[in-house]
């Protein structure tokens, strides 16, 4: 009877699959994305429940374009400060397309609409966009697509306050050569279409970072930046600060208007004689105004100006005998264009961005302390997963919510530092996947699970990734995981001279993967802020990060491997750049290395010691010993007895006996040779 029922059930499933295919609805399989992505070639088109209907929005935008004689309108995915994460008010591209990924540009012509994004987001875009939109997979630039869609003399328009200087010049140059016009529309057309439904500006009060977590007062920081202006060979008279994390750091202030980032909407214009802060004054409580000395107008007082006045204020200042210093990376074309070229000093990054990249002693202590409490939250999560995943009751989404809640219970917590990536099986092969009600998978012992998460704390920002398996991993999964771990270890234990760029260290993380013909497409490391952005530049490793690493900088180390439609592996830790203890010092320059500040064990059952060398295993054992000594007292202090036992079990040293060293090979060869003789 049981065999008969199984046979009938199989036939029903096959019949259901034929019906779905016949109707243009892809049949869902655990090993593919069928059923989760759109199918615009079917009749009628198949759209998963995750898409947004954009027909009305597109029609309204095109009517507005027609009224203003615009042939093409360009919609980047950023805000007036070129942030990676943006507030709901500036999510224009997401609102227009339905696609919520952090990277990608939308372009609308009179008859077509495209989204261009990189490979990290292709599947997500196919899950979220309706058939009004075509996904462009990098085979053509947006500028060249525009040339194909337009004729000579046609007008292409965009908001200059959401374009970097370099991006605007690139578009302008390409379109000008094609005899098209590229014009500035400071009244954003998407905002007009969005209308009253557009989220309002934040009115929440700004707040100060507690003094015990701040190494320098804002006056000391301003003095340091002014000294850099004075020592600059070009003698800039003013520094324009556009990046939100720079102003937040400079004045030791934070806000809540951008998800995961404690920033607030502002500009700063700094000279030797005065400081102007462009901000919504109603958001500054009386004690902050007092701290900033807003009641006076001397060199050490902060003058408050309306946020909207920045362009006009800079334009007026630029009429004098001045030189304005800007960081190109975070300054929009809308502000840049009012500064005459003869009065402009432009570097890739502003001196504030460079200065805050190196943490002072107080910031270093805060980052380390935050990572200790963060490790407690992640270890609690690991134990919870071990106990609950075999029950079959948890999903990617419930897991993400649970780890976020665990962090919220730790001292000084200010929420997650980014949207938690909780990905099982094939979803983990998407490097930047985050679950929702439609895409969530059940967590099972039979699938690899990747969790990339982090927290914001008053004393630091955290980011950590662990890949787990509760069942029996395949040999290939173990090999891939171990090679990722070996890359993590080799980079962590590398020694390099001061002034070495992050890019030049990238091979340490990849070489063991390359040896097996494996690789990953993302960068190996990014800088991280101190209760600021989880991604903080210019510090980084790989992906063109050419900035030199210096003592006191923090960076992630996060190699990975992703098998499409199968599984994903990433191991990420935060490390601080510290002095290395070397026997010699060539050229009198100190040598540097990394010190881990993330303290969560790796997945033991995925580690194949037989392909690791002695130095890697020794590093691993030393790291586990440090985890135990650092985290076990905190677990005891928080009365987490079960977690204490879990950590003790998972930080046991690894045996070296599984390693076959070259000397052992030689000994075996000699013995075999003697026997043969």
Secondary structure layout plus pairing:
Layout: H1 2-22, H2 55-67, E1 72-75, H3 92-97, E2 105-109, E3 113-116, H4 122-128, E4 134-136, H5 142-149, E5 155-158, H6 165-177, E6 181-184, H7 189-194, E7 207-208, H8 218-231, E8 238-241, H9 244-251, E9 253-254, E10 267-271, E11 275-278, H10 286-292, E12 302-305, H11 310-317, E13 324-327, H12 333-336, E14 344-347, H13 351-357, H14 361-388, H15 396-408, E15 413-416, E16 421-424, E17 449-453, E18 455-457, E19 460-461, E20 464-468, H16 475-492, E21 496-497, H17 506-515, E22 525-527, E23 536-541, E24 554-557, E25 560-563, E26 567-570, E27 573-579, E28 591-596, H18 614-637, H19 641-650, H20 662-676
Parallel strand pairs: 1-5, 3-4, 5-6, 8-13, 11-12, 13-14
Antiparallel strand pairs: 1-2, 2-3, 7-9, 8-10, 10-11, 15-18, 16-17, 17-20, 18-19, 21-28, 22-23, 24-27, 25-26, 27-28
Helix pairs in contact: 5-6, 14-15, 14-18, 14-19, 16-17, 18-19
Strand content: 15-25%
Mean pLDDT, nearest integer? 91
**Total helical elements:** 20
> In terms of per-residue confidence, which ranges show pLDDT below 50 for 5 or more consecutive residues?
1-32, 660-677
Rg, please?
A: 27 Å
Strand order of the largest sheet: 4-3-2-1-5-6
Largest sheet: 6 strands, mixed
For the termini, the CA-CA separation is 66 Å
Helix content: 25-40%
Structural class: alpha+beta
Report the count of strand segments. 28
| Morphology call | globular
Give an overview of the whole structure.
By secondary structure, the protein is an alpha+beta fold. Strand 10 (267-271) and strand 11 (275-278) form a beta hairpin. The relative contact order is 0.08.
């Amino acid at each position: 009877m049981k065999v008969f029922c199984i046979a009938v059930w199989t036939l029903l499933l096959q019949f259901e699959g034929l019906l779905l295919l016949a109707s243009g609805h892809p049949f869902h399989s655990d090993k593919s994305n069928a059923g989760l992505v759109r199918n615009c070639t079917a009749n009628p088109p198949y759209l998963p429940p995750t898409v947004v209907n954009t027909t009305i929005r597109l029609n309204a935008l095109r009517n507005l374009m027609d009224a203003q004689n615009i042939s093409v309108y360009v919609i980047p995915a950023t805000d007036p400060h070129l942030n990676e994460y943006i507030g709901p008010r500036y999510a224009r591209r997401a609102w227009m397309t339905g696609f919520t990924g952090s990277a990608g540009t939308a372009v609308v012509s009179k008859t077509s609409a495209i989204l261009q994004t990189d490979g990290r987001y292709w599947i997500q875009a196919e899950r979220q966009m309706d058939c009004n939109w075509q996904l462009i997979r990098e085979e053509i630039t947006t500028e060249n697509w525009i040339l194909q869609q337009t004729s000579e003399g046609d007008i292409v328009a965009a908001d200059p306050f959401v374009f970097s200087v370099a991006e605007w010049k690139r578009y302008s140059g390409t379109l000008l050569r094609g005899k098209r016009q590229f014009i500035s529309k400071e009244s954003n057309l998407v905002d007009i279409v969005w209308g009253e439904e557009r989220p309002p500006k934040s009115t929440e009060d700004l707040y100060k970072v507690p003094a015990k977590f701040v190494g320098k007062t804002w006056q000391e920081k301003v003095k340091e930046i002014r000294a850099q202006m004075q020592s600059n060979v070009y003698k800039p008279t003013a520094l324009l600060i556009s990046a939100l994390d720079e102003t937040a750091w400079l004045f030791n202030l934070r806000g809540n208007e951008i998800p995961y980032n404690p920033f607030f909407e502002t500009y700063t214009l700094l000279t030797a004689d005065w400081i102007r802060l462009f901000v919504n004054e109603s958001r500054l409580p009386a004690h902050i105004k007092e701290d900033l000395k807003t009641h006076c107008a001397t060199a050490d007082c902060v003058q408050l100006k309306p946020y909207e006045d920045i362009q006009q204020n800079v334009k007026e200042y630029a009429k004098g005998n001045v030189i304005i210093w800007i960081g190109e990376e975070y300054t929009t074309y809308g502000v840049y264009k009012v500064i005459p070229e003869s009065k402009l000093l432009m570097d890739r990054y502003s001196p504030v961005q460079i200065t805050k990249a190196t943490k002072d002693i107080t910031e270093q202590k805060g980052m380390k302390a935050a990572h200790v409490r963060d490790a407690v939250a992640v270890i609690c999560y690991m134990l919870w997963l071990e106990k609950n995943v075999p029950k079959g009751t948890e999903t990617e989404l419930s897991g993400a919510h649970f780890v976020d809640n665990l962090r919220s219970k730790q001292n000084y917590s200010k929420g997650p530092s980014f949207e938690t990536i909780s990905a099982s099986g094939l979803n983990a092969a998407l490097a930047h996947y985050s679950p929702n009600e439609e895409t969530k998978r059940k967590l099972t012992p039979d699938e690899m699970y990747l969790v990339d998460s982090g927290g914001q704390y008053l004393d630091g920002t955290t980011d950590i990734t662990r890949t787990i398996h509760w069942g029996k991993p395949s040999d290939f999964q173990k090999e891939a995981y171990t090679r990722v771990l070996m890359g993590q270890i080799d980079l962590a234990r590398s020694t390099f001279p001061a002034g070495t760029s992050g890019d030049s260290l990238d091979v340490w993380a990849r070489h063991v993967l390359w040896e097996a013909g494996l690789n990953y497409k993302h960068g190996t490391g990014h800088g991280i802020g101190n209760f600021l952005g989880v991604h903080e530049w210019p510090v980084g490793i790989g992906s063109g990060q050419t900035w030199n690493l210096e003592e006191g900088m923090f960076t992630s180390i996060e190699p990975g491997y992703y098998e499409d439609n199968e599984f994903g592996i990433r191991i990420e830790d935060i490390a601080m750049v510290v002095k290395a203890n070397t026997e010699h010092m060539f050229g009198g320059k100190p040598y540097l290395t990394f010190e881990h500040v993330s303290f969560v064990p790796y997945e033991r059952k995925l580690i194949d010691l037989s392909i690791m060398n002695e130095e890697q295993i020794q590093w691993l054992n030393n790291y586990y010993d440090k985890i135990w000594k650092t985290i076990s007292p905190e677990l005891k202090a928080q009365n987490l007895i079960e977690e204490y036992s879990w950590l003790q079990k998972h930080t046991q040293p690894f045996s070296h006996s599984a390693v076959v060293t070259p000397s052992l090979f030689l000994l075996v060869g000699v013995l075999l040779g003697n026997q043969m003789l």
